[in-house]
Recover the amino acids of this structure.
């Protein structure tokens, strides 16, 4: 299967999960394509100063893979700066959030996988 960029579903969420500004998500897969293994497969971006609020994962886990920019990531109460090639992995039961602390757009891959595969 081939999907062209112009055909990807794009969402913009304002103050997502209690964060500031907006997060833009370009969904490169959906649950059906993932055979029920997860619920989010996106290239996400945050403008300078924008964030995704701290949130808890239950029944799933999430990874942020930083493509470009400078991030401040909250990982279970610990804050760390991340840059291109760095990851944050939030396990089932953990909390995390991400903020763009650079001057340019922060771009990252965001994938949420279920702890147990769902039937679709």
């Amino acid at each position: 299967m081939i999907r062209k960029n112009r055909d990807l579903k794009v969402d913009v969420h304002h103050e997502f999960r209690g964060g500031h500004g907006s997060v833009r998500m370009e969904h490169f897969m959906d649950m059906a394509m993932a055979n029920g293994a997860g619920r989010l497969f996106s290239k996400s971006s945050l403008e300078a100063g924008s964030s995704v609020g701290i949130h808890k994962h239950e029944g799933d886990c999430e990874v942020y893979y930083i493509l470009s920019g400078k991030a401040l990531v909250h990982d279970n109460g610990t804050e760390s700066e991340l840059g291109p090639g760095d990851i944050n992995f939030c396990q089932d039961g953990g909390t995390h959030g991400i903020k763009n602390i650079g001057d340019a757009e922060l771009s990252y891959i965001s994938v949420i996988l279920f702890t147990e595969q769902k039937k679709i």
Remarks:
- The longest strand covers residues 38-46.
- The beta strands are 9-14, 22-27, 38-46, 51-56, 60-68, 71-75, 78-82, 87-90, 95-100, 106-114.
- The mean pLDDT is 95.
- The radius of gyration is 14 Å.
